[in-house]
Amino acid sequence: MLKVAVVGVGGISGAHIPVWEEMEDAELIALCDIRPEQMEKYENIKHYTDFEEMLNNEEIDILDICLPTFLHADYAVKAMERGINVICEKPISLNEEDIDRVYSTAEKNNVKFMVAQVLRFWPEYELLKEIYDTKKYGKLLSGTMTRLGCYPRWSWDGWMMDEKRSGLVPFDLHIHDLDFMVYAFGIPEIKYQYRSKLPDQDFFTVNYDFGDFSINTEASWYATCYPFTAQFRFQFEDAIVANENGKMIIYLRDDEKIDLSEEAEGDTGNINLPKSNAYANEIHYFFDCVVNDKPVEKINPEELRGVLKILKSL
Ligand SMILES: NC(=O)c1ccc[n+]([C@@H]2O[C@H](COP(=O)([O-])OP(=O)(O)OC[C@H]3O[C@@H](n4cnc5c(N)ncnc54)[C@H](O)[C@@H]3O)[C@@H](O)[C@H]2O)c1
User: Fold this and answer.
1) 276-292 pLDDT, tens digit each
2) Ligand 1, residues 117, 150, 156, 279: which to mutate, most atoms within 8 A of Cβ?
3) Residue 213 contacts by C-beta under 8 Å, 6 or more apart in sequence?
């Protein structure tokens, strides 16, 4: 039984904590947040408001970092120096130099480290990558990726609205799509970019050139309460693979389509879209690497470096 602690009990921890609680071979023993009220609803787990105190008092095998972005690298290093394995929310950092610092600390202390880039574990995105890898519908010709929401006024101490602490839309939101593209298709060149950044809204569009195809992206925190939207549409020679309006649909030639959305009925051929929770998938993957001493191959520092370099230029 491995002992787990979570630091940062804000928005995204709500997607991580239930996964740890449901795992049979892991025990969530401690939570840490500087705001005690954040931990109140988790009654049977020890609460700490001081990170060092938690590290001094508890024997922790895995630390799950759900802190604001600017704290990720320092907290990961502190824990790994004590021999603790670390899974950390995205992004690893706002600074490329931290990548070496974090990975060399993991190596020196013989522990595992993983940034939780959740799209790499998201069934719809995994299926898209598989279709691309297998050329099931021919070559990829073009793509669009969208990620939109409203200005994050809810974050602790307003950290998300502070460029120095969050990196704003590029590092907080667009990183999901860019990281997936780098993982699935390699490192692109920027062909076109436009950004409109105001004190209470941030929008940009970037066209990425991958050599044989280009992908158009848009990402925004709008000033109004625009609903959160994350979707893609990819054009292959023989099919359009679209994840739009909450539905994953493959549009084939001759007006046929394969509807993979949850409520759809009918034959999906050999296309498998597991109905799994991506946050559980990433946590289970990391846990398996720790328990069975496997390398964390799915997310590597070279790709993370490529992503941070591009984000810096947006
Ligand atoms: N993968 C995803 O889909 C996804 C979604 C949202 C956020 N995130 C990432 O998760 C991270 C956290 O985002 P969030 O939305 O949960 O933010 P949040 O502001 O809701 O939560 C952060 C929590 O950290 C606590 N905290 C701040 N400083 C602390 C310290 N020194 N010690 C202990 N606790 C401290 C705050 O009190 C707060 O409860 C960010 O890096 C963000 O990029 C990922």
Assistant:
1) 899 999 999 999 999 99
2) 156
3) 139, 140, 141, 142, 143
Residue 38: inside a domain: yes
Which pTM does this prediction carry?
Answer: 0.96
Give the position, in ligand 1's atom list, of the atom nearest the Cα of 12.
16
Q: Are residues 228 and 263 in the same domain?
A: yes
Q: How far is the CA of 159 from the centre of ligand 1 (A)?
A: 9
Read off the CATH number of the domain in which 65 is found: 3.40.50.720
Ligand 1 atom nearest to CA at 171: 43
Q: What pLDDT, in 10s, does the model give residues 175-205?
A: 999 999 999 999 999 999 999 999 999 999 9
124 CB contacts (<8 Å, ≥6 apart)? 243, 248, 260, 273
Q: What would the two tokens of residue 204 be?
A: 């940009």
Q: Distance between CA 214 and CA 207 in Å, rounded?
A: 7
Q: Which domain holds residue 94?
A: 2-116+281-299
Segment holding 141, helix H or strand E: strand 140-150
Atom of ligand 1 nearest to the CA of 69: 41
Query: How much distance in Å is there from the Cα of 136 to the middle of ligand 1?
Result: 39
Q: Which of 42, 54, 89 to mutate to test the pocket of ligand 1 (most atoms within 8 A of CB)?
A: 89
- Are the C-beta atoms of 283 and 62 separated by less than 8 Å? no
